[in-house]
Amino acid sequence: MKQKIELYDTTLRDGAQGRQIKFSSEDQLRVVKALDEFGIAYIEGGQPGSNPKAAELFERTKDMQLKHAKMAAFGSTRHPKSAVEDDANIKALLQAGTEVITIFAKSSRLQAKEILRVSLDENIKLTGESVAYLKAQGKRVILDGEHFFDGFFDDNEYALSVLEEGFNNGAEVLVLCDTNGGRLPSEIAAATRAVRERLPKAQVGIHTHNDAGCAVANSLAAVEAGAVHIQGTINGYGERTGNANLVTIIPTIQLKMGVKLVSDKQLARLTHLSNLVAELANMNPRESDPYVGRDSFTHKGGMHADAVHKLKSSYEHIEPELVGNRTHIAVSEVAGRSSLLQKAEDFGIKLDRESSETKEVLKRVKEMESEGYEFEGADASLELLMRRAQGHHKNFFKILGYRVSVESKLSDNNGESLSEATVKVELPDGSQMHTAAEGAGPVDALNNALRKALEKNYPELKDVHLEDYKVRILDGQAATRAKTRVFIESTDGETEWDTVGVSENIIAASVYALTDSIEYKLYRTSTKSAKSKKCT
Length: 536
Description:
Blueprint: E1 6-9, H1 25-38, E2 42-46, H2 52-61, E3 70-76, H3 88-95, E4 100-106, H4 109-116, H5 120-136, E5 140-146, H6 148-154, H7 156-168, E6 173-178, H8 185-198, E7 203-208, H9 215-224, E8 229-232, H10 246-256, H11 264-267, H12 270-280, E9 298-299, H13 302-310, E10 328-329, H14 337-347, H15 356-370, H16 379-390, E11 398-408, E12 417-426, E13 432-439, H17 442-454, E14 465-473, E15 484-491, E16 496-503, H18 506-535
Parallel strand pairs: 1-2, 1-8, 2-3, 3-4, 4-5, 5-6, 6-7, 7-8, 9-10
Antiparallel strand pairs: 11-12, 12-13, 14-15, 15-16
């Protein structure tokens, strides 16, 4: 495939219509900058005619020095009862001040008659007049054929006539929209080829939704049929089940279909881009997402891990570094010695394949997982387990005991409660610290009390805070006696790490995970310090 393909991102408009997605004004600007740096050609900023925040975004981006992208304002053709020069939506599009304007037109006879309530001829007239007027104002116009595929398979001649009217009046790209997201790749390809045969000089684009789970496949089918413009969103965000996921489409086209979309350096930032937009949208990254998800290159089975260690392509379809990801080995009850050895190598730990030490670590991992532990998402706890088994890890403190009390004022309408924890710890020199602290909940109070006991001796803990706290009940049928698994994600502002604890007592499980988190930070700090002294 030799044709140039343009990327058009609609995360800030179509993506933001997802039920849980919400971007602040500052978030929008960060998304624009990230998309531009990545090499996206067009960034659709929203519909200024109906969304004040979109109008604000266009105003704030007017003076931005974008390196790659053009901002695009989005709206509809003129209203049937308005002259094009007096139409409020058309005026708002022009006031946005963007070089590029994208308008959508009904390309389905059913939509024209039942939704717009206009004649078929009038709908075509709306399309032509709107495109021509915007072109006369010096704008580049992209025409989205809304409901194109449904319209095409209902009445292909009418659907093609709407696009033809737009093209004849100056639309530079004709975008075929699978608005309801229900079409299949074979249908997308057939309709795309029909447009190219009817309008061979037109640039054809594709815009798909994921209601049948085919948005990415449909976009690729359109490209194979000659589409040269792809619309989608980062992480597939969007209304209902979402839009075509550009994060999957981009590496597939570039690495599988041989069409250069962005530079290699930009492609290597794909995982970062995906995670950044997820963070700004207040969404958790999907670990199973192709290319960028943590699980994309994670190997749990022992045979798979062993094979990947010998030849990465045996179970990896691309080099994960190409998209900014990396190989992960999950040590678990189904993993073998090879998985353990490779994981140890990742940690910088030397384990001999046949040593009793290695056998003991593997045995301990499997025993703990049978008790409910899971190390796939808790690398820090796993590394500490290995180092303790080797006898190379010193304990920086020992918890001698703790107590937690919760006082609840049930008489209050808001049901406020106060948690207090006391902790007694022993330090390596034999001294003991006995401290108390309050918190928003039992775990928060324990964390505060433990920090209070340790920060005088270990001031580096002041930089540590908990990023996430997850609880899972392992055997629900045991009711209140059920085992609980607690995952804690911690950060010191530079590095993130995960730890795990398991117990029938949720507080005890939290203490185990919390203790590992602090131990891991202190180990890393001491190791850095030792290396620094050695270098000097």
